[in-house]
Design a protein that fits this description.
This protein has 276 residues and is α+β, with helices and mostly antiparallel strands. The protein has eight helices and twelve strands. Strand 10 and strand 11 form a beta hairpin. Helix 1 runs parallel beside helix 3. The chain is globular. The termini are far apart.
Length: 276
């Protein structure tokens, strides 16, 4: 059980972390002046979120001011923006010349488990619109259940620290590939359309690849549904000053699934078959 202040500190620390990560982006770091800070989306109706973001940004851009939407505009501006982009996307160019996140794999040696980063955040795409990296790794990954698990990292960090509970929001599981024999090389490549290909090369000469068609990421709909339920139906729990992780509804994705079952589930997905 954690009291409401601990819950607030937990949530707000993630907001601080996200803003600081954005300020580290190369294109943002080189800016010397920003005129307006615009808040959009329901979460920005929370005064403390607005306060935290403004205070952090103001440390870098001293004279920045806030552009204020009314309550209705705050709730609908994101949807309007998406609609306008859908209509005029041919006239809008989005610069995705760099990776917005990092990619790596988990490896356990003895009692030490860490996330090995292969592709760093802000890596540039090459002329073929790809960015790729691999590393020689001779292992059977016994400490990881003879499986190589791949992850996307939203932000900075490396090694053991990324697997700590407080950094869970930064790390997203992508997929896992069973290890059938001694590995020779582990690789990841990403194209401009954010299609990710994870690969394992074995000493036998065999190679296994999985693309985004195979990758199972968190179900965003379920996450949002839980967040909405928490915000609207757990008011009594918050008013009592406590919150239990058990009050979160169980999701199908919370249940561990073996790699073999995952593969069968993916193969039976009609959407996947259609894309293939």
């Amino acid at each position: 059980m954690i009291d409401s202040q601990e819950l607030k500190d937990f949530v707000y620390s993630k907001v601080e972390d996200a803003v600081n990560e954005i300020l580290k982006y190369p294109d943002v770091k080189k800016l010397t002046y920003v005129d307006k800070l615009i808040f959009a989306g329901r979460s920005t109706t929370f005064p403390n979120i607005r306060k935290i973001v403004h205070e952090i940004v103001k440390k870098k851009f001293k004279s920045i001011s806030i552009w204020n939407f009314n309550d209705e505009e705050i709730k609908t501006s994101v949807a309007y923006g998406a609609c306008w982009y859908g209509v005029y996307n041919g006239l809008v160019t989005i610069d995705n010349s760099r990776l917005s996140s990092a990619y790596g794999f988990k490896q356990t040696v003895g009692n030490d488990t860490c996330l090995q980063i292969l592709l760093n955040q802000n890596s540039k795409f090459d002329e073929d619109n790809m960015v790729a990296a691999s590393r020689e790794v001779e292992s059977q990954f016994n400490g990881d259940g003879e499986t190589v698990s791949f992850y996307q990292v939203m932000g900075s960090g490396e090694g053991n620290a990324l697997l700590a509970p407080e950094n869970r929001h930064k790390v997203v599981f992508l997929t896992s590939i069973p290890v059938s024999s001694m590995t020779k090389r582990v690789g990841i490549e990403v194209d401009r359309n954010n299609i990710v290909t994870c690969s394992l090369e074995f000493n036998t000469g065999d190679e296994v690849k999985q693309t985004d068609i195979d990758i199972e990421t968190r179900d965003i709909t379920e996450e949002n549904e839980w967040a909405y339920t928490f915000a609207t139906e757990n008011k009594d729990v918050l008013n009592q000053g406590s919150y239990s992780a058990n009050s979160r509804p169980h999701r199908a994705s919370d249940t561990p699934v073996s790699p073999e079952v995952q593969i069968k589930k993916r193969d039976s997905n009609p959407k996947n078959k259609k894309r293939i």
